[in-house]
Structure formats: structure tokens, C-alpha cells
């Protein structure tokens, strides 16, 4: 068993507590099947929906205040006062007049408030920032129907910081403590912890732990003891290698003539990560739009972080490629009524660049999630090189903001889906793309001039043209990692042509792995059948 690790910290509330760790930065990220009815399409409306969410939040806070002591009541009253502050509503309304969606207008208004507090000279003012963050996330939870859940009694809360309302909603009578990577001895949670004699330390620095690991908090000496062992996580880390640059795992796959092939899975939902078996190289495509289904989700950085973190941590040391929101056209985002409901229309990267408030929240969540695994980010529907350059700049800007807030993050490799014929023909001009992945569904659609709902569409008829285009495009990738994640990758009948085109990394639906694996081992790397097959 690993030796216990003792970390120096700053005492915020005296006392000693031991219990299983609760990792606060991993809130529940329900699967699509588990999503509440309140998050169904059409529930996120205009300013009226925001007003209703604020009223729900005020009601929740008033319920917390019932029977609370004077100091707790003062903190809750402050949060209620902020929610009722007319200047907050006016600032939100002003952003809406600038053609900003109501949910993102609310987020931007509160983020600006948080930024001002975090930049204050006085520690007491900086400590107030978490109070406003608490309000922002509570209202977003009410909008999406996903309130912040409590954690098990007797646990040691581990996280960057803690919201006052979360402290007040928890039953501390069964023990437990608090260990914060950052935090403040002048913050409201520290004040509440001293009032209720809950042992608490702050400023530990980020450390590794798993949910349920035994942890001790020494609020007298200012220390945290990780009884299962652990380590401090460096504040900065280099970017990971792109998805294609990976070693063949113990469950390696080779063609009949010995050429290594990578086989990954496509997932639409965090729960599908359970299908990642030892013989699978990783997640070649996670379609984030199937987990971020409403405008409230798209505006909720913490919820997105939880979704991505769950997938990355379960993938372990295997790479995960998450595609940014491919919304627009035939995939509208519930609650953003001005998106076109039917194709054609702005979609994918063009829509994200046109609505940067959506892209910035997702970029921050992905940057923060990248420290938990081997993340690569894929951009959807890229047509021109400057679209990648503009999105990379947006990521750099958000990384700088996270750095100023001392939030751990890492810049992931950023690549692109190859699903627009104009891009496929010009891949040698996409110098800033870290990797390429062919999306054959849209590639076939645009090559054959079909619509998604065309009853006469026949993928088989378009396949020869798609295969020829892929073969030409692979030659233009100039040594960068390249894969295929569209439906053709999971169809054994197309495998000879894809191998002959030079593809060596296939990402398929979990149900299609076995058929593709069996087909690969019966073929040579040039697509010809092995002797005896």
C-alpha cells in the first residue's frame, strides 16, 4: 500500500476530520437517458424563463435560510440581494439588446462581476467572487433542471473552492471536513466552517485523489493527509501529443501483413465510455452536442467540465477526441431560437465563430478538462484554414483568462473534421490543424448534393467518389495524424478501399468494433485479402 502523503496547507477552521474524499469538481453528469424532463427541448425561453429561474433560486436560498444562524442568514441575504439587484437585470438586458441570447447575457453579466471581484486588491473582496459564482451556477441549474447535488455525509469535500449555499445545504452533523486547492480564510465558507466547527484547510495546491479515498484534514496544524497515497499535480503541463501519435496498446491490432492499425470508438453520451475495452485505442470522436443539448447547458462551464472530465478519467491513458458543438442546420440547440431549424444554414465552426459566447464557454471547459486525460479537440465543418486559426486564438484568449484566475488548464491539440469537399481537396493548406479525421456522412452528402432527409440518398452510390476523394486527401496531410470516424469506417465492405487510401486509424460505433476488427486482420495494409482468406 502506498505511503500516506502529507500536504502543507493553511488552516481556515480548527479541528481534525477524516472521511472518504468527495471530488467537488466532478458533479453528476447524467446521460441522455437520465436527463430530467425540465431539460427537454423548448424549455429554455427568453427573459421570462430567466426570471423564473431567478425566482426558483431565490426560493431555494430562502428555504436554506429557514432556521439558519445569524451569520448564515447574512450570507444568504447577500446572495438574494444580488439576485434581486436591478442593475444585474439591466446589464443583462443591455447585453440582450446587443443580440446576445438571454442565458449567455446572464452568464456574461455575472462573469464580469466575478472578474472584478477576483481582481480586487483586498482579500475579502476577492473571496466574494465564489458567492457570485454560486449564484450564477444556481440559476443555470434552475434553467436546465439540474440543481447542484449534495454530497455524502461524513465526506471530506475536495475542490478548488466551495459555494456558501452548498455548505449550508449539507448536513455536517455526521462529521466531515473541507480541503480546498485554493480558497481563502476570509471567505464566507471559512467563516461558516468556523461557526459550525467544521475542520477546513485552504491553499493545498492541486493534488490527485479518487472519490472515496480516505483523507484527513488537520485544521489545527494546517495539513491534509492522503492515506491512500497521492501526489501534487504541477500547476502547468505541456500540451499532449495529437490523437494519432499514440503507441499500440497491449490489445494491438494488425493487418495480415503486420501493419499496426488503431481502432477507437465513437460516443454520443458520457455513459457510452463504458464500452471502452482494453482492445480499443481510445475515443476517436465524442459528439458533444448530444450531451450539451440546451442553451443552459451550453452556458454552463461547470456542467460541461463534469461531462468531459468523466470521459477523460475513465479513458485513463488512452486518448479522447471531443468534437466541439456541431449545432445549426438540422441540429438546433434547444433554447437558442434564432438558430436555423433546417439546413442549409450556418453550422459547426462557422456558427461557433458567429456566436463566440457559446464557443468560449466550451473552450474553457475543454481547457480545464484537458488536465484529466489525453484530450484532443476537433472542430466541426471546417471549410477554410482561417477558421482554425480564429478558433485557436479564441482558445489562447480563454487560456490566458483561466491562468489569471489560477484555474488549472492545458492547451489540447486542435484538429479538424474533414467533411466539406472544399477542405478535403486543400488539406495541405491547413497548417495549423494538429490532425485530421474524415467524417464521411457529411462528405458523402455534400459530394452527392443530398439533404439529410433525402429518401433517395444511397450511400453505396456515393462511396466510390468518397473513397477517391479520401485517397487524394490523405496524400495532402503531410505526415499529420489522420483518422476516419464516419459511418464508412464501421462498414467492413468499405475497409479495403479505406486501407488502400492509406488510413490506419478507424473510429467506429461500439457495436461495430468486432466486425471491423475481424475484417482488418483478414486484409493486408493495401486492402487486398490475405492469403487463405
Describe the structure concisely.
Residues 29-40 have a biased composition (Low complexity). This protein has 533 residues and is of the alpha/beta class.
Q: How many whole angstroms does the radius of gyration measure?
A: 25 Å
> What is the number of helices?
18
- Name the structural class: alpha/beta
Question: Hey, roughly how much beta strand do the residues contain?
Answer: 5-15%
Overall geometry comes to globular
Name the descriptors:
single chain; 533 residues; alpha/beta; Glucose Oxidase, domain 1; Enzyme I, Chain A, domain 2; TIM Barrel; 3 domains; nine-stranded mixed beta sheet; eight-stranded mixed beta sheet; 18 helices; 38% helix
Show the helix and strand layout.
Elements: E1 5-8, E2 10-13, E3 16-23, H1 47-65, H2 70-84, H3 86-97, H4 102-118, H5 123-127, H6 129-144, E4 156-159, H7 164-169, E5 177-180, H8 188-195, E6 200-202, E7 214-218, E8 223-226, E9 253-254, E10 260-267, E11 283-287, H9 295-298, H10 301-315, E12 319-323, H11 349-354, H12 356-369, E13 374-379, H13 385-404, E14 414-418, H14 421-424, E15 436-438, H15 440-448, H16 459-474, E16 482-484, H17 495-500, E17 505-508, H18 513-521
Helix pairs in contact: 1-2, 1-6, 3-4, 4-6, 10-12, 12-13, 15-16
Domain PEP-utilising enzyme C-terminal: 252-520
Biased composition (Low complexity): 29-40
Domain Phosphotransferase system enzyme I N-terminal: 10-128
Structural notes for this entry:
The protein is an alpha/beta fold and 533 residues long. It has 3 domains: 5-26 and 149-226, Glucose Oxidase, domain 1 (3-Layer(bba) Sandwich), CATH 3.50.30.10; 32-144, Enzyme I, Chain A, domain 2 (Orthogonal Bundle); 253-521, TIM Barrel (Alpha-Beta Barrel). Helix content is 38%, strand content 14%. Strands 9, 10, 11, 12, 13, 14, 15, 16 and 17 form a 9-stranded mixed β-sheet that branches. β13, α13 (385-404) and β14 form a beta-alpha-beta unit. α1 (47-65) crosses α6 (129-144), α3 crosses α4 (102-118) and α10 packs parallel to α12. The chain starts with a strand and ends in a 12-residue tail after the last helix. It comes from Rhizobium croatiense. Pfam families: PEP-utilisers_N (PF05524), PEP-utilizers (PF00391), PEP-utilizers_C (PF02896).
Amino acid at each position: 500500500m502506498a505511503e500516506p502523503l502529507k500536504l502543507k496547507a493553511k488552516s481556515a477552521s480548527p479541528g481534525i476530520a477524516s472521511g472518504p474524499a468527495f471530488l467537488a469538481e466532478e458533479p453528476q453528469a447524467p446521460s441522455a437517458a437520465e436527463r430530467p424532463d425540465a431539460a427537454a427541448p423548448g424549455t429554455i425561453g427568453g427573459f421570462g424563463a430567466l426570471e423564473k429561474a431567478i425566482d426558483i433560486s431565490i426560493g431555494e436560498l430562502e428555504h436554506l435560510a429557514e432556521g439558519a444562524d445569524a451569520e448564515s442568514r447574512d450570507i444568504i441575504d447577500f446572495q438574494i440581494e444580488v439576485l434581486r439587484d436591478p442593475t444585474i437585470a439591466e446589464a443583462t438586458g443591455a447585453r440582450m439588446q446587443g443580440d446576445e441570447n438571454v442565458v449567455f447575457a446572464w452568464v456574461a453579466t455575472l462573469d464580469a462581476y466575478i472578474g472584478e471581484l477576483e481582481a480586487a486588491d483586498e482579500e475579502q473582496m476577492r473571496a466574494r467572487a465564489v458567492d457570485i459564482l454560486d449564484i450564477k451556477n444556481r440559476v443555470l441549474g434552475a434553467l436546465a433542471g439540474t440543481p447542484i447535488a449534495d454530497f455524502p455525509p461524513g465526506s471530506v469535500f475536495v475542490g478548488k473552492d466551495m459555494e456558501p449555499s452548498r455548505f449550508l445545504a449539507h448536513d455536517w452533523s455526521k462529521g466531515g471536513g473541507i480541503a480546498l486547492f485554493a480558497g481563502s480564510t476570509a471567505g464566507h465558507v471559512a467563516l461558516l466552517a468556523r461557526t459550525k466547527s467544521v475542520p477546513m484547510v485552504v491553499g493545498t495546491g492541486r493534488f490527485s485523489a479518487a472519490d472515496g479515498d480516505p483523507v484527513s484534514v488537520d485544521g489545527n496544524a494546517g495539513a491534509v493527509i492522503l492515506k491512500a497515497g497521492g501526489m501534487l499535480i504541477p500547476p502547468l503541463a505541456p500540451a499532449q501529443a495529437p490523437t494519432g501519435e499514440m503507441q499500440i496498446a497491449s490489445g494491438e491490432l494488425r493487418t495480415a501483413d503486420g501493419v499496426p492499425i488503431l481502432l477507437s470508438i465513437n460516443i454520443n453520451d458520457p455513459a457510452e465510455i463504458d464500452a471502452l475495452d482494453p482492445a480499443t485505442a481510445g475515443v476517436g470522436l465524442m459528439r458533444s452536442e448530444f450531451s450539451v443539448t440546451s442553451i443552459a447547458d451550453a452556458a454552463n462551464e461547470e456542467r460541461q467540465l463534469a461531462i468531459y472530465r468523466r470521459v477523460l478519467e475513465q479513458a485513463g491513458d488512452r486518448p479522447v477526441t471531443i468534437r466541439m458543438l456541431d449545432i445549426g442546420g438540422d441540429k438546433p440547440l434547444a433554447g437558442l431560437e434564432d438558430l436555423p431549424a433546417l439546413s442549409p444554414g450556418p453550422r459547426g465552426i462557422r456558427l461557433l465563430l458567429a456566436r463566440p459566447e457559446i464557443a468560449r464557454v466550451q473552450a474553457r471547459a475543454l481547457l480545464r478538462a484537458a488536465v484529466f486525460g489525453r484530450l484532443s479537440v476537433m472542430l466541426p465543418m471546417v471549410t477554410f484554414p482561417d477558421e482554425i486559426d480564429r478558433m485557436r486564438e479564441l482558445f489562447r484568449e480563454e487560456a490566458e483568462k483561466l491562468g489569471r484566475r489560477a484555474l488549472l488548464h492545458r492547451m489540447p491539440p486542435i484538429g479538424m473534421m474533414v467533411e466539406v469537399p472544399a477542405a478535403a481537396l486543400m488539406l495541405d493548406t491547413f497548417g495549423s490543424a494538429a490532425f485530421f479525421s474524415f467524417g464521411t456522412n457529411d462528405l458523402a452528402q455534400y459530394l452527392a448534393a443530398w439533404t439529410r432527409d433525402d429518401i433517395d440518398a444511397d450511400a453505396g452510390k456515393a462511396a466510390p467518389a468518397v473513397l477517391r476523394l479520401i485517397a487524394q486527401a490523405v496524400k495532402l496531410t503531410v505526415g499529420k495524424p489522420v483518422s476516419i470516424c464516419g459511418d464508412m469506417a464501421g462498414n467492413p465492405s468499405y475497409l479495403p478501399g479505406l486501407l488502400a487510401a492509406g488510413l490506419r486509424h478507424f473510429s467506429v460505433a461500439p457495436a461495430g468494433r468486432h466486425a471491423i476488427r475481424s475484417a482488418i486482420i483478414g486484409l493486408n495494409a493495401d486492402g487486398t485479402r490475405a492469403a487463405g482468406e
